[in-house]
Amino acid sequence: MASSLSPPEEASFHHRHSKRYSSSSSNGVAVESVSDFVKRPKISPPNYISSSEIESEFSHHDPDFTRINNGSFGCCPSSILARQRDWQLRFLRQPDRFFFEQLKPKLSESRSVIKRLINAEHDDEVSIVDNATTAAAIVLQQTAWAFREGKYDKGDAVVMLHYAFGSVKKSVEAYVTRSGGHVIEVQLPFPVISADEIIDQFRIGLEAGKANGRRVRLALIDHVTSMPSVVIPIKELVKICRREGVDQVFVDAAHGIGCVDVDMKEIGADFYTSNLHKWFFAPPSVAFLYCRKSSSGARDLHHPVVSDEYGNGLAVESSWVGTRDYSAQLVVPSILEFVNRFEGGIDGIKKRNHESVVEMGQMLVKSWGTQFGCPPEMCASMIMVGLPVCLGVSSDSDVSKLRTFLRERFHIEIPTYFRPPADGEIDPITGYVRISFQVYNKPEDYHRLRDVINGLVRDGFRCTSLSG
Amino acid sequence: MEADERRNGDSSNHNHRAPKKPRLAGLITESDIRSEFAHHQTGIARINNGSFGCCPGSVLEAQREWQLRFLRQPDEFYFNGLRRGLLASRTVISDLINADDVDEVSLVDNATTAAAIVLQKVGRCFSEGIYKKEDTVVMFHCAFQSVKKSIQAYVSRVGGSTVEVRLPFPVNSNEEIISVFRQGLEKGRANGRTIRLAIIDHITSMPCVLMPVRELVQICREEGVEQVFVDAAHAIGSVKVDVKDIGADYYVSNLHKWFFCPPSIAFFYCKKRSSESDVHHPVVSHEFGNGLPIESAWIGTRDYSSQLVVPSVMEFVNRFEGGIEGIMIRNHDEAVRMGLMLANAWGTNLGSPPDMCVGMVMIGLPSILCVESDEDSTMLRSYLRVHYSVEVPVYFLGLRDGEEGVKDEESGLITAYVRISHQVYNKQEDYERLRDAITELVKDQMTCKNLSAV
């Protein structure tokens, strides 16, 4: 059952916190076999990855940059990159043999690992695709077919969040609007005070979707919105969707695995997608699309790039979309080895990332005299921090230029967000930064950001001074 | 040097811009080539470049540099490096294939993806009533299986009709192909139907034949076919590609097969038209609506490095005498020479005449092996891999009633062919190993039935 993907580690054999493929952190030692037992040291304080090992794993990151934007493109430790190269070389060495003998079984192993991690029922419910953008195309193409083939009535609704990712919105336009579906965007408040605000707005959105005797065929909900970034109360929203007779719920959790708790049975959605290269240390790029077996339409999902596997189920279709480099999808089992070098495995990492990002965020809020975009319990490993009002952020263009300015002048990488002032607000905070915290980050990164912004404030800097 | 000069002045050189010609002293050596492909498994006769291609070590190195650039500071790369790098690759390709405008060239993963793009568009036209249900898509029966499935998924599903043209094989002349194609077009237009799309392979995969694609496209124009899609998965690096001369609406070729790119990258050419083209990448990003080249340049976070190394590949091929043209000519000549050697040794035939081959040749297998099904051919292929360390695809030729077929020297019917490939890393010993393997199987009176028992 154990894969032979990685050579046994002799000298630095760590006391592994959990079985190789365990989906959640466990306190006990799971003894798999006699040889495993023998390899473990007899008296065993945990021998977790050290700070200097972490630095070494991410030594390929540009040392001149203050990198506090893990949310956009993620990161990948060098030991995983090395495994990825092994896979690439295996194919290049003898591609026919690799294709006929290894590719599919090894992709199945990756799917099995993911299935356990996300508490899915069957391996078949897990398909591996490039990224959440691809997953969205798959789900929305199915919705488009249903409209075109008359399964759905023209004008039936698809409900999504206003803060849905730009690419997903375009996908909805390309597939749903074009085939006759009616799209409703749920406006969410920002800053947000509580989960209830979101739940209330969502209910209103569903009502609008059902107006005039229409059906809501699909609810497309982010687990963690991208910009502005907020953790959405996804379990409650799914329950509401079920009560209100929504046909299908699709959760876009690009920032899911490694960021928030991802338990398919608990969440109860029909479709759920998450990138592994953002918060789960995979190389670019790999994501999973979970499709509940019992869901209507599950059998109607197809990868848009049709190969000779067409009709064999989405998981199999996705495992062959023509000749390409599947190495990022093959390293998934190795990633578990990596995260299990940390105390608490991936759950420990999530917890510490959350605590650190809140702590750093609070430090910034205090120093700048601003506020968070949401309460700490509605954030995971990213948080929106208000920028000082005196910087004069007054448009999308301002924040875009500010981001470039921070990158080029100060070598700080951080995404920025413009929050338009609402009527009646006095001196509102209109600019936010989204800070991320991942295992390679240090407090100095955020101190630097703090000081640079304070420096700009001291110098009387205003965004209008930035050239376009 | 003389050969180079002749090629430079050659009026049939349709290249928009002449490739850089290396100084004689700088040409790649045998040992350089061995070193470039040192990562290939040794001890096997790797004579199947056609399926998965190859990539030299120096290009893999260039690819790693691109990968590291992204990993180092991904935002910076996304905002400042990626699109410029992709445009550089597209520009090299655009020049190579004689496109009018670099905007006609998109980069996608592979030909399978391009087929999905074209067929999704056609499917939408059927769905939205722009095409009538009886309107047809015409293709060859030996079109790549993925393309056929794509037609099923996007065209048949919405009620569009298809007409399959049976490629004669073995084939003796272009006229044979042209003749059956004309018949296929007639069928497609019967009863006042319109042929909305013709899909033509530039080089068929199995069985492998170089098609008279220019003539076929011309016939399509004459016969009022609305759009022509040339699936040229094997073309670039195998045969001269001049998209203007060929004249198709859509043309796709993989660069990881015969153009030394790492997996995977293909160029997808869409002839500029005055009206809205309505082709879109199926993975929709925020670039939707900005034109296919831009849409394809960002389909979400992924590794675009294989699409960025095209300029490095040009440097590689230009280390060879005659650049890519020299490589193509030598691959063809060697493949034919080896093919004839095998046909002679086995008493069989070539599947097509030399001028209808590229760097790949189909050679009949001795009838005594009794290949009687696709399963048999798959088994024989595995057997050759496992017991003789020969990697070569085997094709089962299912003859239909009334077809005569070709006989071998033993007067048995030839029912199977191997497809040999020749690329710069191949040696004569590779083909001799195949020759001897088959000869031994024949001597030991092995048939496919025996093989399954082994």
UniProtKB/TrEMBL annotation, chain A:
<protein>
    <submittedName>
        <fullName>Probable L-cysteine desulfhydrase, chloroplastic</fullName>
    </submittedName>
</protein>
<dbReference type="InterPro" id="IPR015421">
    <property type="entry name" value="PyrdxlP-dep_Trfase_major"/>
</dbReference>
<dbReference type="InterPro" id="IPR015424">
    <property type="entry name" value="PyrdxlP-dep_Trfase"/>
</dbReference>
<keyword id="KW-0663">Pyridoxal phosphate</keyword>
<dbReference type="Pfam" id="PF00266">
    <property type="entry name" value="Aminotran_5"/>
</dbReference>
<feature type="domain" description="Aminotransferase class V">
    <location>
        <begin position="102"/>
        <end position="447"/>
    </location>
</feature>
<feature type="region of interest" description="Disordered">
    <location>
        <begin position="1"/>
        <end position="26"/>
    </location>
</feature>
<dbReference type="InterPro" id="IPR000192">
    <property type="entry name" value="Aminotrans_V_dom"/>
</dbReference>
TrEMBL record, chain B:
<protein>
    <submittedName>
        <fullName>L-cysteine desulfhydrase-like</fullName>
    </submittedName>
</protein>
<feature type="region of interest" description="Disordered">
    <location>
        <begin position="1"/>
        <end position="25"/>
    </location>
</feature>
<feature type="domain" description="Aminotransferase class V">
    <location>
        <begin position="89"/>
        <end position="275"/>
    </location>
</feature>
<dbReference type="InterPro" id="IPR000192">
    <property type="entry name" value="Aminotrans_V_dom"/>
</dbReference>
<dbReference type="InterPro" id="IPR015424">
    <property type="entry name" value="PyrdxlP-dep_Trfase"/>
</dbReference>
<dbReference type="InterPro" id="IPR015421">
    <property type="entry name" value="PyrdxlP-dep_Trfase_major"/>
</dbReference>
<dbReference type="Pfam" id="PF00266">
    <property type="entry name" value="Aminotran_5"/>
</dbReference>
<keyword id="KW-0663">Pyridoxal phosphate</keyword>
<feature type="compositionally biased region" description="Basic residues">
    <location>
        <begin position="14"/>
        <end position="23"/>
    </location>
</feature>
